[in-house]
Specification:
Chain lengths: 414, 414
C-alpha cells in the first residue's frame, strides 16, 4: 500500500469541491483505498508538501492523426479545412512506421498535460490504429481507440470501400485482445461518411460484441442538413444512428451543438453521453453547445479537446473554454442561463466520464488512481489563499511547469 | 551594426503576412536598418537557423497589481469580484516594498511571454507606481504606466480624496523624469471612479503636459447605465471624457463592448485608440466587442490582456481569444460578419500600436527592434509546411518553451 501526501481535492457530481487539506491518499495496485489523516501501514509515501493533488483528466474526443495539424488552417471554412489539412494528414497514416513516432509523441504530450484517460479517433488504417493503441498503452494511458469507418464522402487519398471497411474492422477487432488498458471502440466517422450497409454491419457488431461506440452528432447546420437529405426517413439526426443499433448507453456523441430538445431527450433516455468540445465549437464557429441546459435535463456530458478542431491538448484550456462557451450563452440569453462554475467544468473533465469507464468516481474507494500534482508556490499573492482559491487559480492560470507528477491507473507516469 | 538571421515574418496594416525566408534583420542601437539577404558590414550575427523571427507583443491594457489575483474569482459577478479580490489586492500595494518583488516577477513573466511593450494601470499609490515603472524599465520593457485616479466609489481600503489624488498625481508626474523608456500616462480609473473636479483637473494636466491618457469605456451594460445617471448631460459615455479634455489622439480606451455606432464614430473622429480585451470580454461576460465593425469604420484597435479580468498574460492566448470573440460574432450574426484572420489578430498585438508609440511599423526601417524567436522544430508534421502555416501554427499552438529569445528596444532581453 502506498500513499500520496498533500492537499487532496476533487469535485463531486453536484459540483461540490471536496477538500482534504494535508492528507494521505492511500492506494495499491488495485486502486484507491481511501483518504486519511495518516499513513499507517503504507510502505511508500510520496510527500508533495503543500501542493495540490487533483484527479487527472479524461479527454473523451480527439483525433490522433490530426495531432500533426494542430493549430493550422483555422481561418478556412470547414470543408476547405477538411480537404486542405484533415484528409491529407490522415492519409499519411496509411504507413504504420510513419505513425509510430508521432503517436508516441502524442502519448507523451497527453501525459505531460495531465491527461491519462482518452477516447480517440484513429484514421481508417487498421495497422496504424494498432500502433496507436500500442503507443497509448505503453505510455500508461487507459481508454478507447477506434479505427475510423468511412466508405463515402472522403477524398481520393482517404477512402475505403464498404468491403475493405468491414474486413479491416474485423481484423482490427481480432487484434485488440492483446491490449489490457486500451480497448477498441466502434467509430463510424459520422453519418455522412458511412453507407447504410456499413452502418448496418457496425450496428450488428455492436449488438454481438457489446463494444462501445463513438461518433459525431449535430455539430453544424450544414452537416445536419446533409444528414436530413441522406436519411429522409429520419426526422432527427440521432435517429440515423439509432436505426442501425448504434445508439445506447455505451455511445459517445461529440458536439451536439445543434441538438433540439427532442434530440437531447433522446440522448438522455438512451443513456448516450455527449462529449462537449468547447474549443472546436468556436474555432469552427459551429455554435455554443448548451451545456447548462443539457445538465439540467439530466444528460451525461463529458469533455473533449477535439484536436485539431480544438487547438489545445491541455485540458486546463478546455475547462476554461467550456466555461467561456457557457458564458457566451449567458451573454446571449441573459442571466437566467447560469454559466458553468470552475468546479462544474472541472468535473466534466474528470469524474463525469467515470461511469463510461465503469469505474468509481475519482479519488473514491475502488477507483483506479488517476492524479496530477500541481505546484503553485511561485505564483504571487497578496493574502493567504484558501485551497478553493488555489484550485480555481490552478485551472485558469495554467502556469508553465505546474504539473509536478502524473499518475495513471495506479502508477506514476511522469 | 548587428543582424538576426532566420525566417523573418511580420504583418502589415492590411493584414498581409510579409515573409522573408532565411534573411538577415539588420539593426543597431538606434533601431532597424532593413531586411537583407546578407550580413555585409554586420559585426554580430545571431543565427537562428530555420526558426521564426516575429515582432514581439504590445499589451496595451493590463492592471499590474491584479497580477496577484490572476485566475481567481471569475465565477463571481463583477461587483463581488471587485470587492472580494480586486480592491483588497490593489490596496496591498500601498507598501512599495511589498510591490517591488511582485512587479519584478511580472516584468519577467511579460518578457518570458514575448511582450516588450505595455500600457499599464498601476494602483492609486504613487510610490508603488514609481516602483512599477522602475521594475519595468530595469527589465527592458518600454511603454506607459499610470498611477490610477479614483476619488469615489472605491472601498474603505482603496480610496483617495480629491486633494490626495491631485497632490499625489503631481508628485508622481514630477518623479517620472528619471525614466527613459517607461513614461507616465494619465489614468482616471473610469468615469464612475472620478469626481467631476478630479476629471477637470486631469483634463487640464493633459492640456498642459500633452501626456497620454488611458481609461475604460462602455465595458458592460450596468456601467453604461451608472455613467448615464452620473452625467445626465451626456447622452453617450464617451462625452464624459471629452467634456473634461480627456479625449484625443493620445487616448487609449479599453473595451468599448457596448459602444454604439455614434460612439465608435466619435472614437474614430478624435483618433482615440480602442484597446480590445477579448479574454475579459468573455470572462466577465461583458459581451463580444465588434472588432470587425470597428476596423471597417477605420477605428484604431490594439490588443490588451486586461489581467486580471483576462486570465492570460501570454499574447498568443489573447490573439487566439480575439479570433474567437470575432467568431462568436460570426456565429451570432452569420457569415456576413467576417471573423478576424490569424494575421489580422496578430497585427492587433504587434504593429497596431506603433502609431500610439510614435514609431515606424515593426521590422520597418527606423523602428526599434522588438522581436521574438520561435522554435517549432519539435512539432510533428505530415508534410513540409509553408512559413505561413508555421506562423499560424505558432500562434495557435503556443507550445511550451517555444520562445527562444526576446528582443526589446534593440537589446536582447531573454
Amino acid at each position: 500500500m502506498n500513499a500520496l501526501k498533500g492537499n487532496i481535492l476533487y469535485v463531486e457530481p453536484n459540483g461540490d469541491l471536496i477538500i482534504h487539506p494535508n492528507s494521505f491518499l492511500h492506494y495499491d495496485e488495485n486502486g484507491i483505498l481511501g483518504i486519511f489523516d495518516n499513513a499507517l501501514n503504507c510502505e511508500e509515501i510520496e510527500d508533495w508538501g503543500n501542493r495540490l493533488i487533483l484527479p487527472s483528466f479524461a479527454d473523451m474526443h480527439l483525433h490522433a492523426p490530426q495531432y500533426t495539424m494542430l493549430g493550422m488552417g483555422l481561418d478556412l471554412p470547414l470543408l476547405d479545412w477538411l480537404k486542405t489539412y484533415t484528409f491529407p494528414a490522415e492519409a499519411r497514416f496509411k504507413d504504420p512506421e510513419f505513425a509510430r513516432p508521432i503517436y508516441r509523441k502524442l502519448a507523451l504530450e497527453l501525459i505531460g498535460n495531465g491527461t491519462t484517460k482518452i477516447s480517440m479517433f484513429s484514421s481508417l488504417h487498421f495497422e496504424s490504429t494498432l500502433v496507436l493503441m500500442e503507443e497509448m498503452e505503453k505510455a500508461g494511458l487507459v481508454g478507447f481507440v477506434g479505427k475510423v469507418n468511412m466508405d463515402r464522402n472522403g477524398s481520393e487519398e482517404l477512402h475505403e470501400s464498404t468491403e475493405e471497411s468491414i474486413e479491416n474492422t474485423k481484423k482490427w477487432i481480432l487484434s485488440c485482445d492483446k491490449f489490457k488498458h486500451i480497448k477498441p471502440i466502434l467509430t463510424p466517422r459520422f453519418t455522412p461518411s458511412c453507407t447504410d450497409e456499413l452502418m448496418g454491419w457496425l450496428g450488428e457488431v455492436a449488438r454481438q460484441t457489446k463494444l462501445p461506440i463513438q461518433s459525431h452528432l449535430s455539430e453544424n447546420e450544414a452537416e445536419v442538413q446533409t444528414v436530413k437529405n441522406l436519411h429522409p426517413d429520419c426526422s432527427q439526426y440521432w435517429q440515423t444512428y439509432q436505426k442501425y443499433g448504434l445508439w445506447n448507453e455505451r455511445t459517445l456523441m461529440a458536439h451536439c451543438v445543434q441538438s433540439s430538445d427532442d434530440e437531447l431527450l433522446a440522448i438522455k433516455k438512451s443513456g448516450v453521453t455527449v462529449v462537449h468540445c468547447p474549443s472546436s465549437n468556436i474555432n469552427l464557429f459551429s455554435g455554443f453547445a448548451q451545456v447548462r441546459h443539457m445538465l439540467d435535463l439530466g444528460v451525461k456530458v463529458v469533455l473533449g479537446s477535439d484536436i485539431a478542431g480544438g487547438n489545445h491538448l491541455c485540458m486546463f484550456d478546455n475547462i476554461a473554454s467550456a466555461i467561456r462557451v457557457s458564458k457566451a450563452r449567458t451573454i446571449i440569453e441573459g442571466p437566467k442561463t447560469q454559466f458553468l462554475t470552475t468546479e462544474e467544468a472541472f468535473f466534466l473533465a474528470t469524474g463525469a466520464s467515470s461511469s463510461f469507464f465503469g469505474e468509481e468516481l475519482p479519488f473514491h474507494q475502488g477507483a483506479p488512481l488517476h492524479a496530477i500534482v500541481l505546484d503553485d508556490a511561485l505564483l504571487p499573492n497578496t493574502k493567504e489563499l484558501s485551497l478553493k482559491e488555489r484550485f480555481q487559480r490552478a485551472i485558469y492560470r495554467r502556469q508553465k511547469d505546474a504539473i509536478m507528477a502524473v499518475y495513471g491507473n495506479n502508477k506514476r507516469l511522469k
